[in-house]
Amino acid sequence: MSETTKEPEAIMICVDTSGWMEGTKSPMFQEQLEAIKLYCNNKFSSHIQNVVGVCGMGEQDIGHMIYPTRCRDGNGSHIQNVVGVCGMGEQDIGHMIYLTRCLSKIIAAIYAVRIGGYLIVDEAVAFAYSIWFGSLDTDLPKRIAVFAGGPVYQTPLRIEKLARQMKKVNLACDIINFGHRFMDKKNLFKTLIDKVDNNGNCNICHVPPELSVSDALIRSQINTPHVGVSGSAPSASFALQHDREKIVICVEAAPKDPLGVLGYCPFCQRVLLTLAEKNVPYDVHLINLDNKPEWFVEVNPDGILPLIKFGDDEKWYSNSDDIVEMIDAKYPQAPLLTPPMFASVGFKILPKVLNY
């Protein structure tokens, strides 16, 4: 799915095994599992020497681990990806599943995790590096992939400390942030990525409520990385390096909600739906209409949302009808499932209905 990388990597996936997942049969855990399959297959196909491992991130199961390695067959040729499992939960230290290159066995090992407790992001990442990276494939560049669905209770100071440690050892990072938005996970992970990134080796995917984790991952920079470009929050230099056609859109935040949750403005949702149907990358700014930022007031004195800007075009547009038509005109290669003239409130469910 992604282009072949220039050099192989040793990758550790930190899986959300917190109590928020409820169990391995819950819909959200299944969504996470499908996204992990997608991520693994992408890494497996991007370089023949990539190795992938998995550890848990919940209090009950930190370190339940799939140990990756490269091994050779009888002819001395590389077997593409070989994986084993080891646990490091308080009651599961040392539990081992022998090395395998079968993805189904990897998934079976993930199903064996114990769900419970809070997400412990910093401890899981530190363990993955100190134990796994300290003993296997020390010659490869190293990457951590964090799948975080539940709330993150680590303080900004702990996240910043983790970022400094990761930066010191040049540990690349992918973050897939989905599900619960408690404690402002988005800003915590933005801080982590901003501080760890080294010449674009870190990426982040915030999964919007209307998409599955896999769908968002497919559309993200993680799945189709751009060399030398950071996946962190947008900036002027980032926009120029990454994609001159990058769309920036401002939408309404939920009223009186300090956690940065998308509001229920039908006009904003209509435009976001259009971008999703077109599979167009974009950056979102949530605007609290009770406390508008100064820059927003300067570019949009009327305070109308949604507000959108296309790439190098310095002009902002605020009429949802015009915006939908402009998106359709700029990206004709992906026709809208719902025609623009009918893409209003209520009609956004039409494509879903037609699929049944």
TrEMBL record:
Listed InterPro entries: DHAR1/2/3/4, Glutathione_S-Trfase_N, Thioredoxin-like_sf, vWFA_dom_sf
UniProt superkingdom: Eukaryota
Keyword Glycoprotein: no
Molecular functions per Gene Ontology: glutathione dehydrogenase (ascorbate) activity; glutathione transferase activity
SUPFAM superfamilies the record matches: Thioredoxin-like, vWA-like
A Pfam family matched in the record: GST_N_2
Annotated GST N-terminal domain residues: 255-335
Presence of keyword Transferase: yes
Catalysis performed (reactions): RX + glutathione = an S-substituted glutathione + a halide anion + H(+)
GO biological process: ascorbate glutathione cycle
Listed EC numbers: 2.5.1.18
Sorted UniProt keywords: Transferase
Family label: Belongs to the GST superfamily. DHAR family.
Identification of the protein by name: glutathione transferase
Taxonomic lineage from the root: Eukaryota, Viridiplantae, Streptophyta, Embryophyta, Tracheophyta
